[in-house]
Amino acid sequence: MQRRHLLSSAFAAAVSVAGVTQASTIDQFEGKTRPIDTMNRVKGWQPGAVEPIEIKGRSIGTGRPKLIAPTTAKTPDDLVATVKRFAAMKTLDMIEVRIDYLGRLEPKQYADVTRRAYEAAGDKIVLVTLRNGTDGGPFIAEDDYYGEVYEAVLTEGRTDIVDIELFRDAAMVRRLVDTAHKKGVKVIISDHEFKFTPDEGELIRRLLLEEEAGADILKLAVMAASPEDALTVMNATAKVRHYYSNRPMLTMAMGKWGVLTRITGEGFGSDLTFASVGGKASAPGQIPAEDCLNVLEVLHKAMNPQ
């Protein structure tokens, strides 16, 4: 070890005398060494970059995670009223219009509701979601019906973003993604596990499958049974950001142990987070919007001192 230190010191001194900038140095951390690229900026050495998405004057992928509040109204009129109330809240950046809470309607009825909701949302980003019963929704939406609903929303309704589930008929998913992009609508492709947290490699695989399917934003939500599960989600998110993808992400662990994943996204690579309004959450572990924003702002300022 002494000989290695002597050689490296001699090399550093020689380089300094020659006036040459070292391409990499060694950063000592708890007895482990990490190579740090200081000159070449070779891909993989530096923290991963994200290509932000700009919608309604907001940048998804820069700054603190943007705040989303979901609707849980069960009638069209109540949904529109909820959206109007959310639109007046300065804390929120995005409103998730959960049309599945309205029950099983005709596709055209959903499209009509989204037009009304979009108008009520003002300058807030609108995300339309039909969540299947297997992924946390109130009823089972078969592939054919699911596809018809989103076709109607995209062609006759109004939205900025749609959420499409990953594990659907692949041809249908691709068709909906293509339709959305032709209409200028961004796509979240999502996956949910309400009973457990898959291992890190599987989480990474699913996020990359979403990108391969054409997602503009990658989404993953799993249930955490321990602090280790939450760390698994954060590690997978950080690795996808650092090594594999420049797409914005929305990742979280649900439940008590997953709460920290909802507020630490700026450090690990999750660019959006859900919060509750009026105590009405669409998934376990959502933090009240005002509290969530305060914590996000504190962390953002601490990570980006002036």
UniProtKB/TrEMBL annotation:
<dbReference type="GO" id="GO:0009073">
    <property type="term" value="P:aromatic amino acid family biosynthetic process"/>
</dbReference>
<dbReference type="GO" id="GO:0009423">
    <property type="term" value="P:chorismate biosynthetic process"/>
</dbReference>
<dbReference type="InterPro" id="IPR013785">
    <property type="entry name" value="Aldolase_TIM"/>
</dbReference>
<feature type="signal peptide">
    <location>
        <begin position="1"/>
        <end position="23"/>
    </location>
</feature>
<keyword id="KW-0704">Schiff base</keyword>
<feature type="binding site">
    <location>
        <position position="131"/>
    </location>
    <ligand>
        <name>3-dehydroquinate</name>
    </ligand>
</feature>
<comment type="function">
    <text>Involved in the third step of the chorismate pathway, which leads to the biosynthesis of aromatic amino acids. Catalyzes the cis-dehydration of 3-dehydroquinate (DHQ) and introduces the first double bond of the aromatic ring to yield 3-dehydroshikimate.</text>
</comment>
<dbReference type="GO" id="GO:0046279">
    <property type="term" value="P:3,4-dihydroxybenzoate biosynthetic process"/>
</dbReference>
<dbReference type="GO" id="GO:0003855">
    <property type="term" value="F:3-dehydroquinate dehydratase activity"/>
</dbReference>
<keyword id="KW-0456">Lyase</keyword>
<comment type="similarity">
    <text>Belongs to the type-I 3-dehydroquinase family.</text>
</comment>
<dbReference type="InterPro" id="IPR050146">
    <property type="entry name" value="Type-I_3-dehydroquinase"/>
</dbReference>
<keyword id="KW-0057">Aromatic amino acid biosynthesis</keyword>
<feature type="binding site">
    <location>
        <position position="262"/>
    </location>
    <ligand>
        <name>3-dehydroquinate</name>
    </ligand>
</feature>
<feature type="binding site">
    <location>
        <position position="282"/>
    </location>
    <ligand>
        <name>3-dehydroquinate</name>
    </ligand>
</feature>
<comment type="pathway">
    <text>Metabolic intermediate biosynthesis; chorismate biosynthesis; chorismate from D-erythrose 4-phosphate and phosphoenolpyruvate: step 3/7.</text>
</comment>
<keyword id="KW-0732">Signal</keyword>
<protein>
    <recommendedName>
        <fullName>3-dehydroquinate dehydratase</fullName>
        <ecNumber>4.2.1.10</ecNumber>
    </recommendedName>
</protein>
<dbReference type="Pfam" id="PF01487">
    <property type="entry name" value="DHquinase_I"/>
</dbReference>
<dbReference type="InterPro" id="IPR001381">
    <property type="entry name" value="DHquinase_I"/>
</dbReference>
<dbReference type="GO" id="GO:0008652">
    <property type="term" value="P:amino acid biosynthetic process"/>
</dbReference>
<feature type="active site" description="Schiff-base intermediate with substrate">
    <location>
        <position position="219"/>
    </location>
</feature>
<feature type="binding site">
    <location>
        <begin position="96"/>
        <end position="98"/>
    </location>
    <ligand>
        <name>3-dehydroquinate</name>
    </ligand>
</feature>
<feature type="active site" description="Proton donor/acceptor">
    <location>
        <position position="192"/>
    </location>
</feature>
<keyword id="KW-0028">Amino-acid biosynthesis</keyword>
<comment type="subunit">
    <text>Homodimer.</text>
</comment>
<feature type="binding site">
    <location>
        <position position="286"/>
    </location>
    <ligand>
        <name>3-dehydroquinate</name>
    </ligand>
</feature>
